Amino acid sequence: MSPKGKIAAILAVLILFSTSCLVYVEKADPQTAAQKFAKARQKIEKISASRPRAPHKLVCLVYDPEEAQLVKISLPYWMAKKGVISSLEEGNNHGLKKADYQFETRAVEEALSKMPAGLLVEVVDEEERVLVWLE
Fold first, then answer.
1. Which of 112, 106, 56 is nearest to 81 (CA)?
2. What is the pLDDT along the chain (135 residues), one digit of tens a residue?
3. Domain locations in the chain?
4. Which of 27, 49, 65, 102 could crosslink 127 through cysteines, CB 3.0-4.6 Å?
5. What φ, ψ does residue 60 adopt, rounded to 5°?
């Protein structure tokens, strides 16, 4: 392989890794899911207790008891932020248009830029659980 080909291959691998989104799905009973959520919560508390820093990825952990599935999604923070902003600017597939929002997308973008790593959302509904945090 030529030197230019090697450089192109290295750049392609770096771009792939820097933009990668990881989705992990596993079968889990309620007890296993509770253990995974407890472990994630400990990690989030450790992140929150440390010195505030800019996040580098968004992580979402979801448990669906009906499907007995635990889903973990991890994606680069810049990609998550870009996705939120572009969906607000373009509207969404639920029939809402940009004019239907009661806030400015620039304000949302600024708020997202200032968020430190740590817990964003935790939802517990009977056995279903959702945990979203920034690392």
1. 112
2. 555 555 655 555 445 455 566 788 999 999 999 999 999 999 999 998 888 888 888 899 999 999 999 999 888 877 777 766 555 555 554 555 555 545 556 666 677 778 888 998 898 887 789 998 988
3. 21-134
4. 65
5. -130, 130
